[in-house]
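Slide 14.
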Amino acid sequence: MNIEYGRNKKRDITVYIVLRSLVIITMIVQFLHGNFENVFLCILTLILFTIPIIIDQKLNIKLPSALEIIIFLFIFSAEILGEINNFYGQFKNWDTILHTINGFLCAAIGFSLIDILNRSERFHTKLSPIFVALVAFCFSMTIGVLWEFFEFGADVLVHTDMQKDNIVSTISSVALNEKKENKAVEVNNINKTVIYNKNNEIIAIINGGYLDIGLRDTMKDLIVNFIGAVVFSIIGWFYIKDRDEYKFAENFIPIRKTEEEIEETKRELERLEKVLEEKRAKRRLKWERKGKK
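Slide 15: predicted structure.
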């Protein structure tokens, strides 16, 4: 088991180093081109990459190898590929795929939080499988809603376009009702929208329809988040009912480390600290020798 865990850890570290290197290269390129907003996204990505490490070392929660790799790839796909390389614009379903994965991952994390408590000897109340699955689902949907709040806030306050706008050919609104009745007026086959400013000057022409300002994107994101959350919640429910038969679910569920694993982590951190201290000492000695010359 320890040999397999070691192999998985080496694989996780390899993925982390490769992705981290790509982010650093991207950050340098963006800096040289003067794209400082993208430089900030690169720094944010590097910070997010440390979350699995903090969870492992500080909270003593063991992330399965598959889950850890998916988290790294998800962060890279969202920030570097999606935002900086504009995969959101180049690939129609890129955003949809990521939000679906997000719903799945958040449900897995929510599930693990309750499952860890449920299996703890200090937690006297044992929750039923259906309740644990329901909490996992609600946790995932809450994270999804909070993210949409963040996107809306960014669009309103910083004038970004995180809630991607869509061109639609049909609208239905009570605001178009001339009689001020609470009855929606439907407009079909919209071919073009012309936008004027206060001076009656044309400032934009939208060909192909009317601009929907983020509503459909938000609802689509929440729907696919819902799908991802439901899928994992069902998997989690079956897993609690029979942990041996549905053992594959463990690839996505963080678990609390045993006392032995906690001690092993401490020893590993102490060994790394010792190595770093030796390197710092050699560096100081090297500078001292240069100073004497």
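Speaker note: The mean pLDDT is 86.
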